[in-house]
Write a structure and sequence with these properties.
Blueprint lengths: L10 H14 L15 H14 L8 H12 L9 H4 L1 H7 L10
């Protein structure tokens, strides 16, 4: 599944829909794979939903939200998920780029 607007269809909602469809066929989702990069907010949104679902506080550190989301989505199941390389903001910072100066 290709997601082009995480604000329209969030990663959490897409993953849950895939799990439901798999269950109809008697299957379970083992994980997922990120091809390319994604905005930090796309993952922290997943982390926040999971923390809230478990009755936690919404003040978790960003790194914890990313790790929680990556674990839930199974982003390490196909190949290693490397936040510094696959989260847009982290990669831009690593390269010394300001996101507001990048034209897509």
């Amino acid at each position: 599944m290709n997601l082009t607007n995480y604000k329209l269809t969030g990663l959490f909602e897409a993953f849950e829909a895939c799990k439901r469809e798999a269950a109809v066929e008697g299957l379970e989702i083992e994980g997922s794979e990120l091809v390319g990069m994604l905005p930090l907010e796309a993952l922290t949104d997943v982390g926040m939903k999971l923390v809230t679902r478990l009755g936690g506080q919404n003040n978790s550190p960003v790194s914890e939200l990313v790790d929680t989301a990556a674990d839930y989505l199974g982003l390490n199941s196909c190949k290693p998920f490397i936040p510094s390389k696959q989260i847009l903001e982290f990669r831009a910072a690593e390269l010394g780029l300001a996101l507001n100066s990048i034209t897509i």
